[in-house]
Amino acid sequence: MQVNGIEILEKQPIAPYAYTQAGGEADYLAIPKNLAELKELLAWAKDKQLDLHVFGRLSNLVVRDGGLRGLVLILSELKEVQKVDEQTIRAQAGADLIWVANQALKYELSGLEWGAGIPGTVGGAVFMNAGAYGGQTDMVVSAVEALTKDGQLRHFDRDELGFGYRQSVFQENGTVIVSADFTLQASNHQAIQELMDENNYRRASKQPLNYPSNGSVFKRPVGHFAGKLIMDADLQGHREGGVEVSRKHAGFMVNIDHGTGNDYEDLIHDVQKRVKELNDIDLETEVRIIGER
């Protein structure tokens, strides 16, 4: 169906859009092409009293088989990136973090090298305070623009972002991230490129990039590494349905044979239970698990 010329898909499977290639149906799903369409869709969801779910590439996420009620918005078309001053790049929420890191390289700005291989979007990185290889979103994001559910654009300064370990204020306030400003440091092309290449090499050599996955599944327990705990529990290769604890990196779970969102969740619970039994350590998920069972 269409709302003011915007296509809204009904009973749409989520799996084709998800990095895990798993997940049930969305009642409604739309991909706004610009900020005006996003505002229209927010207004429609409010008028219909629908639950709202906003994503970029649906990475770092498990959607259960029962799917999501309400309206799912995928912001992949909101992907503009521009340089706004000598040290700042502004990127829309749907821009791939990898692309933003490459734009920073083009402008000879350092600080986003850690994002050169992360398969997520700017909005997701801000929402989860993503990080890797010694870098993190809160180290470089200086401001964020977000829409309230009433369609009002609100500016968040750095001290209003509420960043913590895999946390931000946007997990609580219900606003929709529209863009973020990355304030970086001048450097030179070769130095930036070398660090990006090093990070990408480390990622390719250690992570199971040949299968769909949900990224690093668990937060790092204090004083431990989740992957080491899982490996020591002899859980690599352990499987629920079509999802398996990666044999290459124990901190990842991979979709090797038409796995479902429920398979991911069941496997997560298996791992948590076993690590708790052996080490009395509670593994807390870094990935978000959402939807109906």
Describe the structure.
- 27% of the residues lie in helices and 28% in strands.
- The chain starts with a strand and ends with a strand.
- The protein is α+β, with helices and mostly antiparallel strands.
- The chain has seven helices and 21 strands.
- The protein has helices spanning 35-47, 97-106, 122-128, 170-173, 189-206, 226-232, 261-279, and strands at 2-3, 6-7, 9-13, 25-30, 52-55, 61-63, 68-74, 81-85, 88-92, 109-110, 131-132, 135-136, 141-147, 153-157, 176-183, 185-186, 213-216, 239-240, 243-245, 252-255, 288-290.
- The mean pLDDT is 97.
Please render the helix and strand layout as text.
Elements: E1 2-3, E2 6-7, E3 9-13, E4 25-30, H1 35-47, E5 52-55, E6 61-63, E7 68-74, E8 81-85, E9 88-92, H2 97-106, E10 109-110, H3 122-128, E11 131-132, E12 135-136, E13 141-147, E14 153-157, H4 170-173, E15 176-183, E16 185-186, H5 189-206, E17 213-216, H6 226-232, E18 239-240, E19 243-245, E20 252-255, H7 261-279, E21 288-290
Parallel strand pairs: 4-7, 5-7, 6-21
Antiparallel strand pairs: 1-2, 3-4, 8-9, 9-15, 10-16, 11-12, 13-14, 13-15, 17-20, 18-19, 19-20
